[in-house]
Structures are given as C-alpha cells and as structure tokens.
C-alpha cells in the first residue's frame, strides 16, 4: 500500500538520459561556441573553420559529461546537495581534462612536446564557470521543488481533515433518522460506521487501494439501505481493477452520497444507483449515475456548474455535498496535476441528461505515474 507521497530529501539531478534533455545540452553547447567564435572573429569576417573545430570539441565535452552524469545519477541523488555538486563538478572537469588532452594530441599530430597548459587552463576555467552556473541553478531548483512538495503535502492533509468530519456528519444524520422508527437498524448502522471509521481513521495515506475505497462505499451503502429500504437499488458493474491500483481515500463515497441525496432520496419510487468501472487506454474510469428527482423537488446541480475538471456547487438549501465535490476536485488537482504543463491526469466530470445525473472520475491506471511526489514532477533543464 502506498503511504504518504514521499518528500524526497534530494533529487539534485534531473533525468539527463531523456532525448529532450540531450538535445537541449547540444543546443546550448553550440550556442556558447557560436558566441565565443563571434567574440574572437574580426569584423566583416567569420572563421567557419574555427567554428567547426570548436563545435566538435565542445560537443564531445557536453555529450561525455551528460552521459556520465546520467549513469551516476542514482548515486548522486542519494547524497547531500553539497556532495552532489562536488561530484558533478569534478566529473565535468575530468571530462574537460581528458577531452582537451585528446584534442591537443590530435591537433599536434601526436607530438606531446607541443602540448601546452595554457590551452588546458583556459578551457578548464571556461567550462568550470559554466558548470558552476548550471549546478547553482539545479541547487536552487531542487530547493524550490522541495518547498512545493511540502506545500502540496500540507494542502492534501488539510483537504483530508476537511472531508472526514463531513463524512461523519452526514453518516450520523442518516443514523439519527433511523433511531425513531428502526432502532435495531440504527444499531447495526452504528456498528457499520464504527468499523468504517476504524479502517478510515487508522491511516492518513494520500492514496489507498481500490479495495479499501470500495469497502468504505459498501459500508456507507449498507447504512443508506437500512434507511431507504426498497427505494434504493444498487447496480454494481465493476470491471477487474489491478490489486495495486491506488486512488485518494473518500473519493468515490462522496459521489455516491451525492447521488443518493439528490436523486434516490427525493424520488417517491424506487431508484437505481449505477456504479460502474472500466479500464481503457491506460485510464480507470469510474462513474456514478442516479435518476433525476422530480422537477418539483429537484435540487439537481445547475448545468452551469458542470465543467470539465472543475468543481461543482451543490443546491443552495444544503451546501455540504457541494463542499465534498469541490474537495474531490481540489485533491485530484493537488495530487495528479503536472506542475510543468498544468495537465490534469485525474479529472472529475459532472453531466446530466433528461433522466440521469452522472459523475465520472478518471485516474491514470498506474499510481507510479503521479506527477506530485514523483520524478516526473521535476522541472527539466
């Protein structure tokens, strides 16, 4: 089971093995060479031979440095930022030393007597300054990432603390309505609620397994079944979900509660609550569908609030369900949004037709695809 999203103490180096990063290194290296050649060329002329030779020389330094740091990354990211910086700087200097030595040997046709320390010293100074600037940038960026993760962890914790009392409040209201005419059912409902909260409050995970979330929903539906009797029919249409699938706790239950409150409870006849899950294209889709209440009593959520990936506002006579829906959307954004592209990989979409209201949740099938707290959430250089 995945517990709190890890607040990684050090992720100094980004993933340098990715093609976009390699191309970026090549491009920046070439730009530096062009600027250098421009600064040393005479007015009205441009030394293309010098550009080609320096480009070949500088690209070797850039490629070898990148490849080496890519392979050393697992070791470097386990060390402190100061030690990580030292290893990176040392490796780049060693690559520059080796490349310069090879370049002088080729340039002087293997005559070591013409080897000069001035050429080496100049290149070590230039590369050292550029490396120090890049390493300082990565150090500052790492501090920003850690600060963002700490803020997001605190935000998710606050959202969890907000939704649990909301769930308890609504469940207790349901039990209170049973006491006067069905005390035995109310007692069983209290036992269900106690078991439910023992499981729910004993952990403070950002993500829980699909089976844990399903057990919470089933316990809640048993409570509502005792209150509504034959007026509530639950149709489970669940496809096979991987055992290791993770999602935020108390994500599906508020949608079920919303469907009962706004649909089933306000209908005089039997209402079917459809809960469906399916996996397609690497995404898990969960939908909760309820029949609309009669127009005279309907408190269905206005169409203006049914926005893709946005929150929903509950009816004005009772805002508690609107709070729950807004809370779900806020947690999905905090946990699954890519901080670089602002892409939401998990969404809550609300829709309705003439007969039904539907809430649809979409999650990435693999929990390790999270941007928050994962290496994919790093800002690339």
Supply the key terms.
8 helices; 5-stranded mixed beta sheet; Heat Shock Protein 90; 2 domains; disordered N terminus; 7 strands; 381 residues; disordered C terminus; alpha+beta; 12% strand
- Mean pLDDT, to the nearest integer, reads 75
Termini Cα gap: 33 Å
Share of helical residues: 40-55%
CATH topology of the largest domain, what is it called?
Heat Shock Protein 90
The main sheet comes to: 5 strands, mixed
Strand content: 5-15%
Low-confidence stretches: 1-9, 297-320, 371-381
Backbone shape? elongated
C-alpha Rg (nearest Å): 30 Å
Task: Give the C-level CATH assignment of the largest domain.
Answer: Alpha Beta
Question: What's the arrangement of strands in the largest beta sheet?
Answer: 2-4-5-7-6
Count helical runs: 8
Identify the CATH homologous superfamily of the largest domain.
Histidine kinase-like ATPase, C-terminal domain
- In the residues, how many domains can be counted? 2
Number of strands: 7
Tell me which CATH architecture of the largest domain applies here: 2-Layer Sandwich
Structural class: alpha+beta
Summarize the helix and strand pattern as letters.
Answer: HHHHHEHEEHEEHEE
